[in-house]
Amino acid sequence: xxxxxxxxxxxxxxxxxxxxxxxxxxxxxxxxxxxxxxxxxxxxxxxxxxxxxxxxxxxxxxxxxxxxxxxxxxxxxxxxxxxxxxxxxxxxxxxxxxxxxxxxxxxxxxxxxxxxxxxxxxxxxxxxxxxxxxxxxxxxxxxxxxxxxxxxxxxxxxxxxxxxxxxxxxxxxxxxxxxxxxxxxxxxxxxxxxxxxxxxxxxxxxxxxxxxxxxxxxxxxxxxxxxxxxxxxxxxxxxxxxxxxxxxxxxx
Length: 252
Prior knowledge:
By secondary structure, the protein is an alpha+beta fold. Helix content is about 30%, strand content about 20%.
C-alpha cells in the first residue's frame, strides 16, 4: 500500500510550535477531554513539547524550533531543579504553575512508580501480542532457533512469532529515542538470529497499530486514563498539566 507523506520544512515546524502557544484550537489540544491546566498560556517542560509533537516531527527538529522561538523572544525559558520550562514571553509563568509541574515530575519519577508502570506495561503487551495472533517464544533472551548472540551482553525483550515469521521485540517507555548504538546492536542481533525487528513505539493517536514497511513491524501504544492515588492526576494528562497522552520527565 502506498501512502502520501507530507514534506515539512523546519519553518513549518517552528510555526506549528508557535501556534501551539497561541491558539487554544491547535490540534494538540484536541485529544481527549479538555485539560484546564493545559493551554497556550501554560508553561511546558521542554521534553514534554518534544513528545507532544513527536508523531509529526523528530525530537531534535522540535527542539531546534523551540530554540529559535526563544532566540526570537517569542518564548522564554526557565530552569528549575533539573527541568527546563518554556512559556510565551508576553504571558510569563507564575512560580505556582511551575512548582505544580515540578511536583508532578517528581511524583512520576519515583522509582516505585516507574517500576510499577513498567511491569504493568509488560503485562499489557503480552496480552496484546496474543490478541494479535502472536505467540511469545522467548523473553529477555539472546538466542533463537539454536543460535545465540555472543558479541555483546544485550538481550531482546521478547521474541514473538506469527505464521512463519519470528520477530525480535524491544519495548521502550522512555521519552527519548533509543540510543543509536543500542539500536544498531539490536538490529544486528535480529539479523544474526534470523528475526525481523519489531520496535514497540511509545506513543501514537491510535491505541494499537500494526505497520509493515520495509520488513519492519511496529506496534504503537498510547497511554489512556490511569487514575493516580489523588484521583485528579491522570496518566493521560498528568494532573491536567498536559494534553492527553503526553508526559514529562526530569532530565533536561
